[in-house]
Specification:
By secondary structure, this protein is mainly beta. The chain has one domain: SpoA-like (Surface presentation of antigens (SPOA), Roll), CATH 2.30.330. Helix content is 11%, strand content 35%. The chain has a four-stranded antiparallel sheet, with no helix packed on it.
């Protein structure tokens, strides 16, 4: 039996996927001054590696990419089981 067939029962269960690009501390004044479409400058950029989490647990890592003027994540590695 193939691995995907072994978990087929769970294949349609939704999972929360996170790919945290960066964090920034801002003052309340700065947050209240934001308008729709405002850009918050961060320290990460396209091509950098980030961690990918599923349900809060590390799944692997990825690379920040820009696709059609949107930010995305290209999966580059899966975490091996311990």
């Amino acid at each position: 039996m193939k691995p995907l067939e072994q978990i087929d029962y769970f294949a349609d269960v939704p999972a929360y996927v996170e790919a945290e690009l960066d964090r920034k501390i801002m003052t309340v004044r700065d947050i209240l001054a934001l308008d729709r479409g405002a850009v918050i400058k961060m320290t990460r950029s396209a091509g950098e590696n980030i961690e990918i989490l599923v349900g809060g647990a590390p799944l692997g890592s990825g690379e920040v990419v820009i696709v059609d003027e949107r930010v995305g994540v290209r999966i580059t590695d899966f975490k091996e089981e311990d």
